[in-house]
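=== Structure Prediction Worksheet ===
Name of assembly: unnamed complex
Input type: mixed (protein and possibly other molecules)
Chain count: two
Listed entries:
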Amino acid sequence: MSEAFTAIHRNAVGTLPARRSEVGRSLLATVAMALILAWAARVIELRPLELLRDIGNVGVFLRGYLNPSFTHVGEYAWQCVVTVCIALWGTLLAALIAVPLGLLGARNLSPHPAVYFVTRRIMDVLRAVNEFVFALMFVTAVGLGPFAGMLALGIHTGGVLAKLLSETIESIDPGQVEGVAATGAGRLHVIAFGVVPQVLPNFLSYVMLRFESDIRSASVIGMVGGGGIGFFLWDTIRSFKDREAATVILLIVAMVMLTDVISSRVRRMAI
Amino acid sequence: MKLPSASGSTPRPPTLSGALSPIVVLDRVSKLFSGHRALDHVTVRIEPGEFVAVIGRSGAGKTTLLRCLTRALTVTEGAIQFGEQDLALLAGRALRNHRAQVGMIYQQFNLVKRLRVIDNVLVGRLPHLAGWPRWASVVGWFPGSHRTIAARCLEHVGLLDRAWQRTDSLSGGEQQRVAIAKLLAQEPRIILGDEPVASLDVVNGAMVMETLRRVASEAGVTVVTTLHHVDYAKRYADRIIGFRQGRLVFDGKAVDLTAAAITNIFGESPSGGERVGIEPGTTAEWAVS
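=== Predicted Assembly ===
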């Protein structure tokens, strides 16, 4: 060991400054969290013992599901295709909505704070209102069917993608944008050359991730009249056709798995 | 706009010829940031074609000076004359036109990393597009004449074979030369440098400075650049201006920058004998890209 190091180690005279203990704070947080959870358990009537007692009923219920019926499998399969189409167009509509909202709602790009504020609030509304609620609204506007479901999905997902896009834009390297703006290029050119190359891979990735989640949403949006396999899911479960319901659920699982696999493949290839 | 002849094989400045730099006059310029004087009554006159190095410690006002010249900042007192134009009066389209006339070169290159090298050079052509090519360029389409200019600018800095590579696959020194090619494509009337070699190693730094010096003197374009190393300033600049706490404390030829003048600009370094920022490579060697 070098003597210089030893000297440094030994000659230190100061001690570390005192630090406030964090035990009290952690304890307080734990107690507070426990109280909130206990209250919430009362609210939702959490009774785990009853679940154990009645577990036999679940077995009776499951028996029908172990024996799926294939009488209407062709119709259900077609409805799955409809579901994928709803998600496809819904996601495209969402991407188209997200681009202008995302640009105007990014702090570093928005032309005016007021524009930024309004755009952000629009995004909040689109995200806060569930796609089912939008579907109920569009069903009254354009009638029952896949078109209403697609509009509902597109509008809601548009808000989600717009928020993701605006946050991606806010985190870009300002130096690269300055490098374009410093040539005297106009706003459109600054966006096309300085911003788009920086956000495009992320944005495409978000769009495809949302497509996967839109398939899951589209598979149930038929419950409220938005078209696709969801109507049959709702109908068979409600009328206790357990064997039919089992088929529908199996098809949905297969569809979601298949589209997830394909979509993530494409995503990896493209980006 | 003049088209470059397709044949010419000798590399010469493809586009800068004929660009005439304006006289830049700073008249008792001060810039205040919430009471702090970043620039303090600076009066300086820069003649067309001069290569001016701006030196001084961090916070001495060098970058503020550059940002006032690009009109990213507006001066608090005094005025900057850019040729006939008073910079304080610029707005909107006139401001963009001014920026098109000022070529910037940065410490961090500020190229769009995910674009190909040639596209970054073409960014320099954006202010020269008019009519429908202006719109077509948004999706990456440029007229053949502009693509030829960009290619020749790239050739001029010796990087034509890298045209189709992604910009971030190049080394720091190469990226800075791409930035110079972009400057050439932009045809600015004045070049401003913000520590263009501070993040490069000694060899690449010297190469970039020599390229900058060569294109500037061939085209007769004024260069005003901040430089960390007094040694670089002495080697490449015609004229050195030194700032200390916002005040101009040295203005003269490189040969007149004596040891006493350097001490006056930078102050004594903590260790006494050595002065800050004299040896090239003392910090640059740590910052190899």
